[in-house]
Write a structure and sequence with these properties.
Chain A: This is LSM-domain-containing protein. The complex is a heterotrimer. Chain B is built from one helix and six strands; from the N terminus they run αββββββ. Chain B is mainly beta. In chain B, strands 1, 2, 3, 4, 5 and 6 form a six-stranded antiparallel β-sheet that branches. Chain C starts with 9 loop residues before the first helix and ends in a 5-residue tail after the last strand.
Chain lengths: ~100, ~80, ~100
């Protein structure tokens, strides 16, 4: 046992610079998880729901999902997994 | 030799500007480019989607949108789409 | 209770549906329901006790959408492998 204390971690001379706002796809996705979104597939079918999560393939898990075809609701799902290759876009349906 | 500019460097210079995106199928988008990645997935703001059908054009307004790069065919920097210059 | 508890990535939704009856939407206007036995990263699926529905729309050329004659063919399969690239959506049983 000794009473030497480890040196305190070197305090940074200044706080690290805030990461620049890039507006990249990754940043967009971070902002939109948990929000209401519209997912449009290349077929034109829309899925409206709350974005639970997604991965690098744009595979998507949605909650409270409504399927819209030509503007009409055609199905409702509590949860839905959408395979990413079908996704045309993910659009925010409420302010991010 | 003049300095070579890479295609994606050109697109990088469009961040903050309007851009016209033409898909492989009969669909087009215009919006303000916020960012993109190596797959040319694009984040756009104040977006208009154009579906070109035999009967005419259907437009949809969208807020911030992540467009999958998979189906993108061409990009026209600084243009506001089929109606703009 | 948050229904999304325990879902970190989209595939979790599928993992939590193993041994349950799921709804699967496929390219080519096909729909399946069946018991999910296995899946992989391609979304290849093994389903049992499957009912397949095929929507055949016999619309005259230029008819407005939804105005063609739709016939539905149903058939049953005991055990089925689904190739992942045809999968559009998987919806687990509602957990409400």
């Amino acid at each position: 046992m000794d009473d030497t204390t480890p040196p305190p971690p070197a305090a940074p001379a200044s706080p690290p610079p805030a990461p620049p706002h890039t507006g990249s796809p990754t940043d967009f996705l971070k902002g939109v998880v948990g929000k209401r979104v519209v997912v449009r597939l290349t077929s034109g079918v829309d899925y409206r729901g709350v974005l639970s999560c997604l991965d690098g393939y744009m595979n998507i898990a949605l909650e409270q999902t409504e399927e819209h075809v030509n503007g009409a609701v055609t199905n409702r799902y509590g949860d839905a997994f959408i395979r990413g290759n079908n996704v045309l876009y993910i659009s925010a349906a409420e302010p991010i | 030799m003049a300095s070579q500019i890479l295609p994606l460097e050109l697109i990088d210079r469009c961040i903050g500007s309007r851009i016209w995106v033409i898909m492989k199928n009969d669909r087009e988008f215009t919006g303000t480019l916020l960012g993109f990645d190596d797959f040319v997935n694009m984040v756009l703001e104040d977006v208009t989607e154009f579906e070109i059908t035999p009967k005419g054009r259907k437009t949809t307004k969208l807020a911030q949108t992540l467009l999958n790069g998979n189906n993108i065919c061409m990009l026209v920097p600084g243009s506001d789409g089929p109606d703009g210059s | 209770m948050d229904p999304s508890a325990g879902i970190q990535e989209p595939f979790d939704l599928i993992r939590l549906s193993l041994s349950e009856r799921v709804f699967v939407k496929l390219r080519g206007d096909r729909e399946l329901t069946g018991i999910l036995h296995a899946y992989d990263g391609h979304m290849n699926l093994i389903l049992s006790d499957v009912e397949e529905k095929i929507m055949i729309v016999d619309a005259p050329e230029g008819a407005p959408p939804g105005h063609g004659a739709v016939s539905i063919v149903k058939r049953k399969m005991e055990m089925l492998f689904v190739r992942g690239d045809g999968v559009i959506l998987v919806s687990p049983p509602s957990r409400t």
